[in-house]
Give the backbone structure.
Amino acid sequence: MNKYAAVSSLKFVLAIIGLGIIYFLWPAFRPVFLPVPPTVDFTVLSIVLGLSFVLAGLDIILNKRRNVYAAFLSAELMLYFLLGLLPNRLKYRPDILDVWANSIRLTALIAGAFLIVNQPYDRKINGRLKPMEKIMPVGKCIFSLMLVLFGLDHFVYSDLIRSLIPQWIPLKSLWIYLSGTVLLGAGIFIGLNILKSQMSLWLALILFLWLILLDLHAFFFRLYKDEIYIVSSLESLAFCGTALLLYAIKENRQV
């Protein structure tokens, strides 16, 4: 495994572990992965969800056959998407792009797990997981789709994006539309395998800046107002790791 794959995998996995820990710290926190109504007691489900994420992350970090545990993680995330978020979104307001945000983020996390499976840590994958290996290259396409949709968000919901930018950053409209253009371009270029390695590396840098300047800024200044800023920080860390994984693939094989 090359150094880029090691660093990017670690970023992604630490984000997954962090997302799991959140459900221990705030059991009543509204779920990001399952559309549980506010009237439902989420305490037990949150503990199960958090524990599964923490254990999956630790397994990927501590075990040599990381791709096997990443395959289990991707399968778990796909179940949350197919049985939870997707049916809920198709039933309630499916025509509004903004309400798909959690679903899009979850598919991007699935893409990151797919890419970890695709890394050649140990190619002797259990026979029962072998068929799953064939769909791992889909991770790149899923991640590219997320970039395109979030890029469109910058144009359709520019006022909402503007509210997330710290007051001390000037020319907010310029940065909103520029970052939206970059996300759109990166999604299209990576999806079409055009300058994929270069675009992935620049994308990782941009996502890291987003994490530092926006998500962590909101985390430190609004921590006691809304825990969602912690989730956003962890998701940005995971997406940064995913972009680096796409860059790392160039040293192994094309996806």
